[in-house]
Amino acid sequence: MNDFLLNLFTGTDEIRPAMMFPNLENGIVYATDTYALVAIPENELALKYGTNEKYPNAHKILDDFQKKELKSIRVNVIDLAKELTKARIEVDKDSIKCKECKGSGTVEFEYRDQQNETHYIDGDCPICDGEGSSEKDSKFARIKLSMIEKEDGTQIAININDLYFHPFQLYRLFMVASLKRIDDFEILYDPNNYGQVVSVFGNIKVLTMLYARTS
Ligand SMILES: [Zn+2]
């Protein structure tokens, strides 16, 4: 099962082929796509992993972080799942919106009379029949979690206290917790630098880049 987790963290970028595979270093297997890094002890994995000299120095990245004076937050996995569901609903609501009337169901019609005068009238959008949504896009389940996007194009992250996460990062933490069958886990952060956090799931550690820095 833990081998499956490595997959959630490997990169898919062929420009950095080393990161497409997990890497063994001093008894710990690491996987990273540069946005997050997972560390799992070799003896908790079923498969064997090799060592690539070109791999990022993952062990040092984690050690350096843990040398700092860190604060911690406990996260309840059920609460986390609820937040993720909300993110999904927001994204889905947005993506099924009718593009013609932008989800309002109403468009403006123009009529020119015999005196060549123009009249305007609001009516049901002919593309979605006034529904405001396009059905055909909603039938497929999307697995990838996107950022929640507002009308004006700004994107929202999910926050836990004053830490802001991309929903996909939290989804990965949720998957680790689920597979480890734990009810809550600890997130360690540096109150002086909100760049990254480390989440601890027993012997498994996950380093995650945060979405935004707060003041
Ligand atoms: Zn419409």
Care to describe what's here?
With 215 residues, this protein is of the alpha+beta class. It folds into two domains: 2-93 and 139-209, Proliferating Cell Nuclear Antigen (Box); 97-138, no CATH class. Helices cover 23% and strands 31% of the residues. It contains four helices and 13 strands. The protein has helices at residues 2-9, 58-67, 77-95, 167-179, and strands at residues 23-25, 28-32, 36-41, 71-76, 106-112, 118-124, 148-149, 155-156, 158-160, 163-165, 184-190, 193-201, 204-209. Strands 1-2-3-13-12-11-4 form a seven-stranded antiparallel beta sheet, with helices on both faces. Strand 5 (106-112) and strand 6 (118-124) form a beta hairpin. Helix 1 runs antiparallel to helix 4 and helix 3 (77-95) crosses helix 4. The longest helix has 19 residues, at 77-95. It is elongated. It binds zinc ion (ZN). The site of zinc ion has 8 residues, from loops.
Task: Give the cofactors and ligands.
Answer: zinc ion
Question: Roughly how many Å apart are the termini?
Answer: 39 Å
User: Structural class, from secondary structure content?
Assistant: alpha+beta
| Largest β sheet strand count, sense and barrel closure | 7 strands, antiparallel
CATH fold category name of the largest domain: Proliferating Cell Nuclear Antigen
Under the CATH scheme, the architecture of the largest domain is: Box
- Main sheet: which strands, in order across? 1-2-3-13-12-11-4
